[in-house]
Design goal:
Helix content: 55-70%
Largest sheet: 5 strands, parallel
Shape: elongated
Radius of gyration: 28 Å
Strand content: under 5%
């Protein structure tokens, strides 16, 4: 973008605005890196080749190889409002960023706030001293005001007339105050404990209660040692799953920002930085596997590793493939039950495996149906973003999903007739009463989904829903009476 035509008579010197971490609650280098890993995972080693040629080459390579929708990036509304106010006075507004020029110009075109764009290209990384030298060449020392946030901005603040500090990195604010005149620090983006809990999806840990299903089925819940191991397994699996959730959010930034509710997730909204997420992912993973190897049988860690690998494949590719996505989701739910078998050193039965696959396939399709129903309500007829389905697939998904749920009921009925079942229960025929309960629950879940009342993960819904809780309690009561 070039200078505007004609020369504006300015009362104040130009206002120079940094992009990453200042105007934008994110970092475009990180944004493009995550987009590249998601869209081209097999070419990830190209990054090292670009980096070998310097940071400027890395930024250009990532910018040109990825598609970033600048219209949904997490801009800071307070900074935009401030720039609007300064621009209204006739002041020259300059975007000076270390991000690649192709992205910077698209952002300037989208926001329509800037008279000049200065950015990195293949030969020059416009950061720190390089940015300082270019701004001094344009406006001279003390000839501009500068808005920034990081230690890389310190050399620029030193030669600016006025410093504006926005959401500063640790230790930056005190160093700026010591070197130049500073406006009151602007704080608009402080992460809370709730943001961290939300990023880790702590409420999704409820799913890990499936680890106790094998213990319940084997009638050994009263054994203290096994319950203790179950609690350890629950916590380890929760940390592992949280690592997956954070990584998935980092890979899905673009899709989440186009979603009506997912756009408010901590990473998509910019309340938590991508860098913090990249630190959190291995920290949670190491803690999970370290604790599991120390406290539980190695088979549990093996199942958890398989779960992590399958989830990674799901995040990178499988979630966008029709049918494979719901089958993998059912497998991920079932993996929790298999992990429980490994943690308790029990035998995996055919009945548990078959029942869990059918019931969780049904619930996975509930999740897809709810997403597509929302898309159809918004009159979207194209392929769902990040999925392999069209809104027109709703009827087929409902048919397949409900059928899968009813097959789970049939597996339960066949389980009652199994010879091994009669050895576990005094009156196994009582379990037949559980079948109509399960039929009612599956039917109710699908009817609520059809009516647009399924607004969360169906497994979490089942755990929180009062009717589901009552049905679950009576369901377990049938088995207790039978035993």
């Amino acid at each position: 973008m070039a200078r505007i035509q004609g020369r504006v008579q300015e009362t104040f010197p130009p206002l120079v605005v940094d992009l990453d971490g200042t105007l934008l609650r994110s970092d475009l280098l990180m944004e493009t890196a995550m987009a590249f890993v998601r869209s081209k995972p097999l070419k990830v080693f190209s990054v090292f080749g670009w980096l070998f040629n310097g940071k400027a080459a890395l930024k250009e390579g990532l910018a040109l190889e990825t598609e970033i929708d600048v219209s949904v990036l997490p801009y800071d509304p307070q900074i935009i409002e401030m720039i609007h106010a300064e621009k209204a006075t006739g002041r020259l507004i300059v975007l000076a960023t270390a991000s690649h020029v192709s992205l910077a110009e698209r952002i300037a075109e989208h926001l329509q706030l800037f008279d000049l764009v200065l950015a990195s290209n293949a030969q020059r990384n416009l950061s720190g001293n390089n940015k300082r030298d270019l701004l001094v060449a344009h406006y001279g020392e003390g000839g501009f005001d500068y808005i920034g946030n990081s230690k890389d901005d310190l050399p620029i603040w030193k030669v600016s007339r006025q410093a504006y500090v926005v959401n500063p990195d640790s230790g930056v604010e005190s160093r700026v105050v010591a070197m130049t005149q500073v406006e009151p620090t602007i704080r608009t983006n402080t992460a809370s404990l709730r943001d961290w809990r939300k990023a880790m999806r702590m409420h999704q840990w409820l799913k890990n209660a499936l680890i106790f299903v094998p213990l319940l089925a084997s009638h050994r819940l009263a054994q203290f040692e096994l319950m203790r191991d179950g609690i350890f397994a629950f916590l380890c699996f929760g940390l592992c799953a949280s690592s997956v959730y954070v990584l998935n959010d980092l890979l899905d930034l673009g899709d989440d920002r186009h979603h009506k509710s997912k756009c408010n997730r901590p990473f998509a909204s910019g309340r938590l930085s991508i860098k913090a997420g990249l630190i959190l992912v291995p920290t949670l993973l190491i803690t999970a596997f370290g604790s599991a190897l120390l406290l539980l049988p190695w088979q549990f860690s093996a199942v958890m590793a398989a779960y992590y690998g399958l989830t990674l494949a799901y995040s990178l590719k499988l979630k966008r493939l029709m049918a494979w996505d719901v089958i993998v989701l059912a497998m991920l739910y079932t993996a929790r039950i298999i992990a429980g078998v490994a943690a308790f050193n029990l035998t995996l039965t055919f009945w548990i495996l078959a029942f869990s696959m059918f019931i969780f396939l049904s619930l996975a399709m509930v999740k897809r149906y709810a997403e597509l129903r929302d898309a159809r309500a918004r009159e979207v007829n194209t392929l769902a973003r990040g999925r392999g389905y069209y809104p027109g697939d709703l009827d087929m998904i409902a048919s397949l999903g409900a059928s899968s749920g009813y097959l789970a009921v049939m597996v339960l009925a066949l389980y009652i007739q199994d010879a091994n079942t009669t050895s576990l229960y005094v009156t196994p025929h009582v379990i037949w009463l559980a079948c109509p309960l399960l039929l009612f629950w599956v039917t109710r879940v699908w009817m609520l989904t059809h009516r647009g009342q399924m607004n969360e993960d169906p497994v979490v819904f089942a755990i929180r829903d009062r009717t589901s809780q009552l049905i679950g309690a009576v369901f377990l009561l049938m088995f207790w009476i039978a035993a």
